[in-house]
């Protein structure tokens, strides 16, 4: 009987631990307890970091630290081909993290990113990431996400990042993006592998959409982004513009250059706020080019038109 009780208790304990780990993922142990404060973490980095400099230098690693509490709230690391030290994820009060021209061990952004639970802005530029940790979605306070030229093949579902309003993922290898459920204002996905505009839960919030240099098959979803002010779709192989484009009544800048368009829908003239239109290097006939020029000269005499 005693042995049975022990077995039952062990099973209950094992299941409870497993359930706890599933619901509340544990951050990997980094040995953060060995550092007295954030200053100690900065001091052991293998390259110099300027602390609270009077001037900001573009190519220098910089930390902003509260002088009394020795707490780092902003960190910019710029060390060409230098390895990103995992100890930076012990900076638990960090709100802004920028990494440029560096290398992650094995090109993997580690699970220890989850330690930065109050991070608000994350920028990683010109730094290869072949695998992104799912812990990215645990950063509930994140409002700005920039991952540019990182060779990213995919990202986890972003549903939990409900506060993100700026998403910049240019120059990667992405073909899909799920979980765009927040109040996104700016969505930049140029130089990727998208065949269509990703689904955004609340497209009416988006003000800027950049998807140039993607192999888009169609842009049917475009008319649901009714508050767009700026759209860049150059070099996307599109062959037509939906006639419902006149729904984008706040549109000011539209770049459709370097595509396979052979006509523009007449109701594009109803975009009263349009002040910049690029449609050069398409498949328009000479007659269509003259027609476009004539009508826009009448309806939008001050427009900047490239054709």
TrEMBL record:
InterPro entries for the chain: Leu-rich_rpt, Leu-rich_rpt_4, LRR_dom_sf, LRR_domain-containing
Signal peptide: none
Pfam families in the record: LRR_4
SUPFAM superfamilies for the chain: L domain-like
Keyword terms of this UniProt record: Leucine-rich repeat, Repeat
Keyword Repeat listed: yes
GO CC, one annotated term: cytoplasm
Name of this chain's protein: Uncharacterized protein
